[in-house]
Design goal:
Low-confidence stretches: none
Helix content: 40-55%
Number of strands: 11
Distance between the termini: 68 Å
Shape: elongated
Order of helices and strands: EHEEEHEHEHEEEEHEHHHHHH
Largest sheet: 6 strands, mixed, barrel
Length: 355
């Protein structure tokens, strides 16, 4: 669970020629009008922009602290800072725990406000309502008032929460380019061209680039994990096949070695059902020793997987129980097949063949 929804999204870098604006207020109005243009495209449900996309691989880092600290340095707690336009957090589907998102008034008025994640709020104001509280921010930003608290989205690492996050209006934390994220209702490939056309009409002065869905960044961030999972699955499947073949061979050979005894029992009046039960009991006794021994060896061996598996115990009882049941079924099948053949054979023919 990434804490955000990358499906049905399209992202792109939108560089802007800063020389075309006379003030930050004029630039903020440009961003608002561009967002309105994009959201007017058929099929687009929401749009917003941010300085660094989720799982992009980088976001600016600096300290944060309460107002009681005289100065910030790298010995303070660290957070990732994002330059943001209104609507971005809603576009990627982040859950708000408290408060609200940034607004156009925040951006155009250059208000020193921020949306923070729950981990930062808890670090600064444990057990208290953080809304309306002010904290010291890095990157030369003014002290920021918290207007919203979100659940921590995993935008730096897909496997774990990393640092707290601070989302600041793009007009006071200026970072270029901004990446627009557009959520759509399943619109076709023409959506990217339509968004490009509206950006060109708005007159950004630069060509957009890195047009990709957010899913692509998730795929990139998890590619090594997926490759590892594929290799583990392949090796586990191969191991299971080899183990099953080995177990089947041993149990079948054990039953085959007992064919002379089966022939004698049959000659003395044992029925076919009795011979089958006898072989199955013999195989079961072997399995009752082998399977617990295998489980005992599997437990310490599972420690080797601790760094690979994700949010699953290496001592997962259902998995171990399933493996034990599969091994028992294979062992009993390997015993039953040759035993059935031996029980149905003519005892005299078997004894003659044995000499």
């Amino acid at each position: 669970d990434l804490g955000y929804d990358p499906s049905r999204t399209l992202s792109m870098a939108v560089p802007v020629d800063g020389g075309r604006f006379d003030s930050r207020e004029e630039e903020a109005v440009f961003w608002r009008q561009l967002t309105e243009r994009i959201e007017a495209i058929p099929g687009v449900t929401r749009a917003g922009a941010v300085s660094h996309l989720p799982l992009y691989g980088y976001a600016p880092t600096d300290a944060f602290s309460g107002l009681e600290v005289d100065s910030l340095n790298w010995e303070n707690s660290l957070a990732n800072y994002f330059s943001t336009l209104p609507g971005y957090l809603e576009t990627i589907g982040v859950e708000f725990r408290l408060g609200r998102d940034l607004t156009d008034e925040d951006v155009e008025g250059q208000r020193p406000v921020a949306v923070v994640d729950a981990s930062l709020a808890e670090a600064l104001f444990p057990g208290e309502n953080p809304l309306g509280r002010v904290f010291k921010a890095g990157w030369g930003l003014p002290d920021l008032e918290i207007v919203g608290v979100i659940r921590h989205p995993r935008v730096m690492d897909a496997r774990a929460e990393v640092r707290p996050q601070v989302y600041v209006p793009a007009s006071i934390f200026r970072w270029r380019p901004l990446y627009y994220v557009v959520r759509h209702d399943g619109a076709g490939a023409g959506l990217a061209d339509a968004v490009r056309a509206h950006i060109d009409e708005a007159g950004s002065g630069r060509a957009v680039y890195e047009v990709r869905p957010l899913d692509a960044y998730v795929d990139d961030a998890t590619s090594v994990l997926r490759l590892t999972l594929m290799l583990i699955t392949l090796l586990a499947g191969l191991t299971a096949v080899l183990a099953a073949f080995g177990l089947f061979s041993v149990m079948a050979y054990t039953a085959y070695r007992a064919r002379r005894a089966s022939a004698i029992r049959s000659a003395l009046g044992a029925t076919r059902a009795e011979l089958l039960r006898h072989h199955l009991r013999s195989g079961a006794r072997i399995l009752m020793v082998a399977i617990p021994a295998g489980l005992l060896l599997a437990v310490p061996g599972a420690r080797l997987l601790q760094a690979i598996v994700y949010e699953v115990s290496t001592y997962d009882v259902p998995s171990l129980a399933t493996a034990a049941l599969v091994a028992a079924a294979i062992g009993l099948l390997a015993t039953w097949l040759p035993a059935r053949r031996a029980a149905g054979a003519d005892p005299m023919d078997t004894l003659r063949a044995e000499g």
